[in-house]
């Protein structure tokens, strides 16, 4: 019968203790760690006067009101809502409203002056929207634009838009719209927050490889 060597037992005891302490530390620090995972995705810039406010498609009730507020405060003379996708739920009821149109609807409900707004119903992805906005900005001789999107989307969107627009001499300012279904400081506490952060990390990694 083979007897375990005392030194081997000690090594295993040390390994098990180290694993247990690591798991305990992760558990005790779970809130700061989870906060850091979400905070990394948020990258907002200081405001400055611009030629246009661009409200990206998707999450119209989050992004539209922020665009409306910036327009009211006079940060730009024009607001442009992007996105060509049609909301599937509304389409079931015969309402074919694009993401751009829904963002403008939400902005209008928040007292946006629609005379200073227009639709750019183009783009089914952040990359496509960036290319469409670049072409529109160049055509209209814009020098600086403000991009409004959901807070956890700001870092990735900022990277995509700067890569598309800065070579054309157009500065980009990112502004974050707070989520309505979760709190950024406790995103892991709701299903909507978990889905949002998980999806955004996957897209961030995808864009890092593809673009």
Keywords:
5 strands, Rossmann fold, alpha/beta, 211 residues, 8 helices, five-stranded parallel beta sheet, elongated, single chain
- Give the amount of beta strand, in percent: 5-15%
Strand order of the largest sheet: 3-2-1-4-5
Number of strands: 5
Uncertain spans, ≥5 residues at pLDDT below 50?
Answer: none
Structural category is alpha/beta
CATH class: Alpha Beta
Number of domains: 1
**Main beta sheet: strand number and arrangement?**
5 strands, parallel
Q: What name does CATH use for the topology?
A: Rossmann fold
The CATH superfamily is HUPs
Number of helices: 8
Written account of the structure:
This protein is α/β, with parallel strands linked by helices and 211 residues long. The protein has one domain: Rossmann fold (3-Layer(aba) Sandwich). It is built from 8 helices and 5 strands, in the order ααβαβααβαβαβα. A 5-stranded parallel β-sheet has the order 3-2-1-4-5, with helices on both faces. α3 links the parallel β1 and β2. α3 crosses α5 and α6 crosses α7. It is elongated and about 80 Å long. The model has no long low-confidence stretch (mean pLDDT 88).
């Amino acid at each position: 019968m083979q007897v375990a060597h005392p030194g081997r037992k000690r090594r295993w005891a040390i390994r098990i203790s180290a694993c247990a302490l690591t798991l305990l530390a992760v558990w005790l620090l779970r809130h700061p760690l989870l906060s850091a995972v979400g905070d990394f995705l948020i990258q907002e810039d200081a405001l400055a006067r611009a030629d246009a406010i661009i409200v990206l498609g998707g999450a119209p009730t989050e992004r539209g009101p922020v665009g409306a507020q910036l327009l009211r405060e006079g940060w730009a003379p024009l607001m442009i809502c992007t996105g060509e996708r049609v909301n599937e739920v509304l389409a079931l009821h015969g309402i074919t409203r694009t993401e751009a149109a829904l963002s403008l609807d939400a902005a209008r409900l928040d007292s946006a002056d629609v005379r200073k707004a227009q639709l750019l119903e183009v783009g089914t992805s952040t990359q496509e929207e960036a290319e469409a906005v670049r072409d529109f900005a160049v055509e209209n001789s814009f020098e600086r634009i403000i991009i409004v999107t959901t807070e956890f989307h700001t870092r990735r969107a900022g990277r995509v838009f700067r890569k598309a627009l800065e070579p054309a001499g157009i500065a980009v300012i990112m502004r974050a719209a707070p989520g309505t279904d979760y709190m950024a400081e406790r995103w892991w506490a709701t299903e909507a927050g978990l889905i949002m952060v998980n999806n955004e990390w996957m897209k961030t990694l995808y864009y890092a490889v593809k673009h």
